[in-house]
Amino acid sequence: MQPQAEMRSPMCPYPFRVLEIAEEMPRCMTMRVAPDDATGDTAFAPGQFYMIYVFGHGEVPISTSGDPAKSGELTFTVMAVGSVTQALCALKQGDVIGLRGPFGRAWPVDLVKGRDVIVMAGGLGLAPLRPSIYHMLSNRNDYADLALLYGTRQPQSIIFRQTLAHWREDAPIDVEVTVDTAGRDWPGKVGVVTELLMGRRPDPSKTSALICGPEIMMRFSAYALMELGIAAENIYVSMERNMKCAVKMCGRCQYGPFFVCADGPVFAFNQVEQLFRIREL
Amino acid sequence: MVEIKNIRTLLAENAFLQGMSDDHLQTMAGCGKLVRFKPGEFLLREGDTADTFYLIRDGDVAIESDVPAAGPLSVARVGAGGITGYSWLFPPHRNGFDSLALTDVSAVALDGECLRGKAEADHELGYQLMKRFAQVMLDRLQATRRQMMDVYSNGKRSDAASG
Fold this sequence. Notes:
The structure holds two protein chains of two kinds. Chain A is an alpha/beta fold. Chain A folds into two domains: 3-103, Beta Barrel (Elongation Factor Tu (Ef-tu), domain 3); 116-238, 3-Layer(aba) Sandwich (Rossmann fold), CATH 3.40.50. Chain A contains six helices and 15 strands. Chain A is globular, with a radius of gyration of 18 Å. By secondary structure, chain B is α+β, with helices and mostly antiparallel strands. Chain B has one domain (2-149): Jelly Rolls. Chain B contains four helices and eight strands. Chain B has helices at 2-13, 22-29, 112-121, 123-149, and strands at 32-37, 42-44, 52-58, 61-67, 71-78, 83-84, 98-101, 105-111. In chain B, strands 1-8-3-6 form a four-stranded antiparallel beta sheet. In chain B, a hairpin with a 3-residue loop joins strand 4 and strand 5. At the A-B interface, strand 4, strand 5, helix 1, strand 10 and helix 4 of A face strand 4, strand 5 and helix 4 of B.
């Protein structure tokens, strides 16, 4: 059963207290929060999002970025780009926020069982994908080969450094990181994330891909995967629109025939490929 | 003779030259030699005459340029199986970037002037080489354009694109 089915009033924010807030890079924070009363629930599926209410400022949709198996707390990674997220990033330990959720369609971690999974992340897009990787690593025998291909601008803009280092060294997942530009001290690759696919020969009949990042990054990545023979229906992307009500009522997040808040944010690429080509959307 | 045979075998094993005829591989091997670089040594220097390209057998190479007041900036990395050096193909035959060994690097160095002469004399060889270099350059061009587009930025400045 999806956690959403057990949810209390979807329109009522419930109080959560900030346990810890840490900087990933300038203007980007990861925070752990816990329910401030006994009514709080923290169950979610990887890829789902919450509406976070910063009192006095407003509400924003933010995907969870923590381990879904960890009960009693939630983790969010936020970039300060507007007034609400700036207020969110300025919170301190002990501050209280309101949460509604979880909302939306999750990464298809059950559907891709038994298959090779390529996870492609661009920039902050690693945050909504991290719960899916935690889940697959916790249930490692359910999946064949796992790979995380992560691209970002510069070494300084890499998020989740400790997690990536741990996965690279100790976890049964192939982790590759590339940056657009770097100094000589950067030991990794330089180039866009699609270049990490070069030299890979995935078996299209048993490979699925999960992609998250800005739309242009997802588009290039999906096409690069399709050039390797992976069908659009086996490629999943997480869309980002201006979610407000989060319960498919207000229409603010309408994307063609879909409401991203409830029909998404995760879509199979064949559902949205045509929409990607419509510039006005 | 032994070295030429070895180089020919190495050329045949390189994915870049896959499908090349035995005769052409043998011809190219006559322009090649095995080279090694230590970390910090340059394979190519920006602005120098471009008379060589390298098929990297092992190790990592940074393609970089020095940015005033910021130091060297890597714009690409080339590993085993990759190529560095395209400028030998086109006038004025000057290297556009530095290629720096980040680790111990072993490579096959191919003499560009020698190859240009052989390609002029044998247009089929020239076509086979151009076809392969055109593909590599297309891939690099597209990758470079994507790097320029800053594909990890949403381009938005609102809370809708915050996480």
